[in-house]
Specification:
heterodimer; A: mainly beta; 6-stranded mixed sheet; 0% helix; globular; B: mainly beta; 7-stranded mixed sheet; 4-stranded antiparallel sheet
Chain lengths: 113, 117
Amino acid sequence: GQQVMQIPQYQHVQEGEDFTTYCNSSTTLSNIQWYKQRPGGHPVFLIQLVKSGEVKKQKRLTFQFGEAKKNSSLHITATQTTDVGTYFCAGSRLTGGGNKLTFGTGTQLKVEL
Amino acid sequence: GAVVSQHPSRVICKSGTSVKIECRSLDFQATTMFWYRQFPKQSLMLMATSNEGSKATYEQGVEKDKFLINHASLTLSTLTVTSAHPEDSSFYICSAPDRADIGSPLHFGNGTRLTVT
């Protein structure tokens, strides 16, 4: 079945440092979504990328969808303590997946002062 | 924005009993709802897709008779964990897209932490 892996699994940074998480799918995706889950909370939708090579920015967050639509990345510039949480990518398969999302393994980010 | 309400947030039950979890879309209609299970510090694993007016679609390895899903209306889906055992203890979370097109963003409930003693 479809697998979506993320690296790293954990990342500790000092406040102000940059952070990147990478997402790789075993199958070609129709789109990729990113979610953030705060400790003890539920996943919250951040953004969706649809086009090959697409890049989107949200303030300090930059999201990229690979040319082959099998990988994606999330980069946070100058992290803040409010960025703490687990970041999940989630993808819909190009064919046969319907509206079903497969979530990545997640990257847990900790930001220290 | 679209809101999904999930109840209860926490439940402790004895082994052998059944637990019902409700998931409601408050300001939109959800023909489809997804039920996930999440173990501590792990990803969300899709258990089943709940379809209004038809049977749920279960993922491979998920017992249909163990996890009963009912999508009674366009705003309500329920997951019943039957004859619960300690290994069923987990965080269960529902979600729904507010649009029907493929790849629509999901709106998640707050989740239910189930502890079976």
